[in-house]
């Protein structure tokens, strides 16, 4: 199950929220992310490092992009609709898309922001299946 893969990345391999979501979907769906792309995903963790847009949301959006982009974002209408819907559901589930608002509610000392990563994976699945 995808959440198990994300858990392994997030808890056992100490990846951040964006990396865990993106890597879990990359692995499960064999999306073929390059090492360079994977390195780029890490920057989204912790809300771009300044508690802005949640990294779990950003990692999920990147997975949608990798799977559905036709190479030109302007004309990847299916991709953009999926990202828009995923973002809306994420915002509804957490009452925000900002790390600074989500982290105080969902972060736990022992598991960090796992509950946010887990929920992002659940929400993302219908857009990736």
Q: What is the element layout, followed by pairings?
A:
Blueprint: H1 2-12, H2 17-29, H3 35-41, H4 45-51, H5 55-68, H6 77-94, H7 99-106, H8 114-128
Helix pairs in contact: 1-2, 1-8, 2-5, 2-8, 4-5, 4-7, 5-6, 5-8, 6-8
Overview of the molecule:
The chain has 129 residues and is mainly alpha-helical. It is 72% helix and 0% strand. It is built from eight helices and no strands. Helix 1 crosses helix 2 and helix 2 runs parallel beside helix 8 (114-128). The longest helix is centred in the middle third of the chain and has 18 residues, at 77-94. The chain is globular, with a radius of gyration of 13 Å. It starts with a helix and ends with a helix. The mean pLDDT is 96.
List keywords for this structure.
mainly alpha, 8 helices, globular, single chain, 129 residues
How far is the first residue's CA from the last residue's CA? 12 Å
Low-confidence stretches: none
Indicate the overall shape: globular
Could you tell me the number of beta strands? 0
């Amino acid at each position: 199950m995808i959440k198990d893969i994300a858990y392994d990345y997030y808890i056992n391999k100490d990846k951040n929220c964006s990396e865990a979501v993106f890597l879990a979907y990359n692995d499960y769906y064999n999306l073929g992310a390059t090492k360079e792309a994977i390195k780029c995903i890490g920057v989204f963790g912790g809300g771009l490092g300044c508690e802005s847009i949640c990294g779990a949301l950003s990692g999920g959006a990147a997975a949608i992009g990798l799977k559905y982009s036709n190479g030109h974002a302007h004309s990847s209408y299916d991709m953009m609709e999926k990202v828009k819907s995923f973002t809306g559901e994420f915002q509804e589930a957490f009452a925000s898309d900002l790390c600074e608002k989500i982290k105080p509610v969902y972060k736990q000392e022992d598991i960090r922001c796992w509950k946010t990563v887990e929920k992002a994976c659940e929400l993302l699945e219908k857009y990736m299946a």
